[in-house]
Amino acid sequence: xxxxxxxxxxxxxxxxxxxxxxxxxxLDEMKGRPLDKQRKELTSKQSKVEKxxxxxxxx
Length: 59
Description:
Elements: H1 6-29, H2 37-58
Helix pairs in contact: 1-2
């Protein structure tokens, strides 16, 4: 398990928040289109980042 001090935790959560924003923008561009491979990958990545954010915030 990785130990994070408060400063690093804040920076890491901010970076993940930025990543989530970029993923949301990419997925928004695909709205209304069929669920193709790229969209599935982005959705999966978004889900993994959300779980990681949750784990870090609880650490």
